[in-house]
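Section 3.1 - Work completed
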Amino acid sequence: MSLALISLTAGSIAFVGTHFAMSHPLRQPLVRMFGEGGFMGFYSLVAVACMVWMYFAFMSSPAFDLPGSGEIGWIAATLITLPALVLFFGSLRGNPALPAPGVGKLARREPEGVFRVTRHPMMWGFALWALSHLILLWSWRTTIVASAVLILALVGARLQDRKKELHRGADWAAWEAKTCYWPRWGRMLSAGWLLWSIGLVGWLAITWWHIQADGIPAGIWRWIR
């Protein structure tokens, strides 16, 4: 393994590890030390530093050093990324897991849209994105980063439940009783036509940007040229 890939692995471990540590066992000690605002600043600084480390290590690593999964892999990845974006965009509004005023009231309402699929639509959106890139199997650098994102998303969602149970008590317990961690994929259409339309537009735009960013046709653009 090249030095760049070793560095990328270390940076990815640091990114995931510091996120878990500062979100859970170290959060309260750091808040007492820096205050809430100072903690958020420190948290953001560490996250950005890890991402910069990962970026430079990623760019220094070989782009195509695995055999790839061929057209079958591209078809699977293309199909997976659309619901990933629907879940992500749907999670940005009315999400009790996000820090915002009135989250207790949100947690007591009946789940709607993507929250009927899973109470962690944002995390599962990231997880599907990671899975789509793991399926392609085209480079070690992509595999390392996608694995880190997958672990961060799915383990992070479980740990988030434990933290919310502790800090939000009955509100989060009520939300957990009406929702589920594991997605109920058969309910994806309940997200509604508007969100699916937004997801489709985002999907087309992001996969088109993929061509401009690194010259790799992704999504339907791989077959429409």
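Second construct:
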Amino acid sequence: MKLYVKQKVFSWVDRFYIKDEEGVDRYYVEGQLFSWGKKLRVYDMANQEIAFIQQKVFSFLPKFYVFKSDVQIAEIVKEFTFFKPRYSIVGLNWTIIGDFWSHEYQINENDQPIVRISKHWFTWGDSYELDILNDKDVDLALAVVLAIDAVMSAGRNAASHTSHQ
């Protein structure tokens, strides 16, 4: 299944939609800004929450948790590196490889692809595509990719705040 997320859509208080190949809304995401740490709730179009993403507060490096049905499924952690950003997924047997800044990366399980993420241009704007290979992984892969994007956004915001002081 292919899903499309509009690039630079993350304002933490608005609702945004995840579309399929036909441009049809398949999921929506709502952010909460005024809380301890940033939070995202991911819903299907039947208004069922499929995932909850929450920032770990007071962490040296950006870290987000992914919950499904109030159970923590994964933790997305930005690893300490000097050059290229690296992220790890704790709690799942998934690994991440590729170029994160240009949205050209892949998540694998046992060296088999779960989801490929790539930047694309479509009529509804500059987006990145999630090519999720197995339908059983769609909800969790979407939540993990959104959490990775949240970690990247938190890292960029922290870097811009420290460089302006």
